[in-house]
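can u pls check wat happens w/ N-carbamoyl-L-aspartate
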Amino acid sequence: MSIKGRDIISALDLKREEVELLLNEAESMRNELKGRRCLHLADDRVVMTVFLEPSTRTRLSFQYAAAYLGARGIDFGATEMSSIQKGETFEDTVTMVDGYGPDVIVLRQSVPGNAKRAAEIARAPVINAGDGANEHPTQALTDVYTIRREIGRLNGVKVGIMGDLKHGRTVSSLSYMLDRFDGNSITYIAPDELQVRPEVVSGLTRTKHSKAERVEDVIEELDVLYVTRIQKERFTDQKEYERLKGSYVISRGFLEKFRRRPIIMHPLPRVDELTVDVDGMKEAKYFEQAKNGVYVRMALLKEVMG
Ligand code: NCD
């Protein structure tokens, strides 16, 4: 089995054994990094990060991952400063970037399907770091790594995914990633307007899934509550966003009403849906989750670059 040279566009591009290999490797890199700044596993390599949509965690964790591997990270920079401003097409931008000879291109942009398009154009392998509302496979790897560390297993886990399930790319990728394992269940918690896209649930083969409108009805049954932000930038009607943005708020006061509480995850950034008073609770795992992204991306970069 080899991931070398492969494009990672969807969570479905990775088989269960490959996911397990990456998670194990992430764990050993985490241990090896204790007290060290660099593992020198990719000293002569170049990782090109191209983020044409806003990003903090994903961009930085890829850049740190490259640095800790000993690879050089080169960043495309802000779109406002690039020739995209002058009207350069996406295809030309990808051809250009690829022409410099990076060992891998990490790409985020807003058009669903354009990560795949880039992979068709580029010689270098492309890792999808988010293509619009479609997918975010490396976040899903980070998420299952966090679940495995916190819950101790990746089979038979009960996960509630809450918030903007319609526009959230972390939602589809996490669903597909959980479906690589056995006996998991997903409860999609959202108002009707923001429920999960039909193609996501129809893609699930092993995972039991159900929908709920009220989080209080299901929370005590969950091992993990995965909270997501209402994706303001994906709404065509901003009035609709204003109406739905306060649909759910997870606060300490809310969580303390329940006898049995799941761990709380969130891909971040959070806006109104998760209050800061949750941060001090033992169930809060989202900052740890963000940190985990570095180790997982180290493992993925190393394997893809070979
Ligand atoms: C997510 C994203 O960009 O899809 N953030 C991330 O990568 N950690 C979630 C979000 O923006 O809501």
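The pocket of N-carbamoyl-L-aspartate is lined by residues 57-58, 130, 136, 139, 169-170, 228-229, 267-268 (CB under 6 Å).
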